[in-house]
Amino acid sequence: MGVDTGYSANAPSSTYPYSASGPSYQSSYPAYPGRVQGSFHAPIDLTEDSNETGGKSAPGKRKAVGDHSNAGLAKPSRKRKAGPVDESEESPPKKKAAEPKDGEKRLRVFRKRAPQAYAEIRHRALTQRMIIIDRERISPPADIDPTSPDNHPTETVSLAGTTGNIYRITISRVPSCDCPHAKKGNQCKHVIYVLHRVLRVREDLEYQLAFLSSELREIFSKAPPLPSEVAKKNTDDGEMDGNRKSLEGEDCPVCMEEFETDGKGKPKRGEDVVYCKAACGNNIHKECFKQWTVAKKGQGHVTCPFCRSPWQDNEETRSMDLKSLAKAGPVNAEGYVNVARQLGLSGRRDYSTYNEFWMRNRMGDDR
């Protein structure tokens, strides 16, 4: 026997929460197309991809089970499928370093800028005393192939260094020197001195370790002429000092033979003649004057065979002696001909511009 509560399960009630199936239920939320009627929170299908074709779902929303509007569509592929390789298609060629038009290769690596070590050696070359003894330039054969890498002049310079040792510097495709520093594979100050002081090459070539034949042709075409070429040109042009006497009808005071002239009182081509610049202006055969110089060296100084005045052109006389000495002089313990006494040099090496750390390791504290 039950108690009458007045409640009927089938009768609508205003106090019980509304049923979604009841006639008086009105939802305050809009109906969604994929939602099953009568279910406020539909179950979620976690097996479907949220990035299906046809558009991406809004952030934070998931599709309901009842939404099958995009079913059956293929998913887009994010990876590009590799197609068949066309072997006939050639890949672009790799770029190579620019080479000279004639195909010539530099024998040493090209320097884009001067290294710091070069600056130190260059400073020594331009601040220390060095003397040019002789220069000899060799031109290429006349019948050489114009495109040959050997089609360039070559110059050999005999130079007295700071100690008086005579070194031979050769300016060719790879400049070289026979000094101890260069023999160790270094760029020495003697080569730099010749390039800068003697040949006066442009700055970007001065610190290179090797030259192309075209660069060598440019260097020697713009270089100052050899002293022997200048003297020969002056003789050919008939240039004479105003103090110099005419050679016409005159005899050499040493060999007593008449000078060969061109008919105008000037030396004939091939006739080497020197003259007294200090006083009288008389002429002497150059070879005869060499013998006169040797005979007078025992007296301490050279004089004019005519007026007995001290010979002013001591530089020319010294140059002739040094050239002969450089080729056939006695060799010292280091293996070089030394002319320090003839040039008035101390014979001691100048270390004033050397690195202090190197000096301590090389010479010790009691240097």
TrEMBL record:
Keywords: Metal-binding, Zinc, Zinc-finger. Residues 1-107, 139-158 are annotated as: Disordered. Transmembrane segments: none annotated. Residues 7-29, 148-158 have a biased composition (Polar residues). It comes from Cercospora berteroae. The keyword Zinc applies. Residues 167-199 form the SWIM-type domain. Residues 252-308 form the RING-type domain. Residues 91-107 have a biased composition (Basic and acidic residues). InterPro entries: Znf_RING, Znf_RING/FYVE/PHD, Znf_SWIM, Zswim2. Signal peptide: none annotated. Pfam families: zf-RING_2. GO terms for molecular function: ubiquitin protein ligase activity; zinc ion binding. It comes from the Eukaryota. This is Anaphase-promoting complex subunit 11.
